[in-house]
């Protein structure tokens, strides 16, 4: 790796740590020339997963976008590491059985299923955007459906 500070290619790894999802390694590196430290991530390379949008357009699935959507709905209600875990569970579920293409609706439903278990307020906020709520009654209906359907917590 070329040092981002001085541009020399003379670094060594001072610390390696697996990411909580087990699919990445974070390495702290130190430049042998100037002593500055920087971080690299090593990830498993996977074939791209494509998302078919309602418009018919195909875009590549990006776990970061899923994470951003959830974080916006959660504000401060759910910790970052919990959301990261949920996002990587969603990706794993979408890629089940080697699937290469999913619909944006399948992505949204996976997110809703995860948020429903994590936090009711976040779930309803996300649903309001995803399902395009127009009236206050929409929230009430969603909540009463949620209460009806919510199975006993598995954990
Ligand atoms: Zn350097």
Q: Record the strand order, biggest sheet.
A: 1-2-3
Bound molecules: zinc ion
Q: Main beta sheet, described?
A: 3 strands, antiparallel
Oligomer: single chain
Beta-strand percent range: 15-25%
The total count of helices amounts to 5
User: Which overall shape is indicated by the principal axes computed on the Cα atoms?
Assistant: elongated
Tell me the number of strands: 6
Number of domains: 2
In whole angstroms, how far apart are the ends? 43 Å
Pattern of helices and strands: EEEEEHHEHHH
User: Structural class from helices and strands?
Assistant: alpha+beta
Question: Can you walk me through this structure?
Answer:
With 155 residues, the protein is α+β, with helices and mostly antiparallel strands. It has 2 domains: 11-43; 50-149. Helix content is 43%, strand content 21%. The protein contains 5 helices and 6 strands. It has a 3-stranded antiparallel sheet with strand order 1-2-3, with no helix packed on it. The chain binds zinc ion.
Q: What's the quick description here?
A:
The chain has 155 residues and is α+β, with helices and mostly antiparallel strands.
Keyphrases for this structure?
single chain; 155 residues; alpha+beta; three-stranded antiparallel sheet; three-stranded mixed sheet; 5 helices; binds zinc ion
What are the SSEs and their pairings?
Layout: E1 11-18, E2 24-31, E3 37-43, E4 50-52, E5 58-60, H1 63-74, H2 80-94, E6 101-103, H3 104-118, H4 120-130, H5 136-149
Parallel strand pairs: 4-6
Antiparallel strand pairs: 1-2, 2-3, 4-5
The site of zinc ion has 8 residues, from loops.
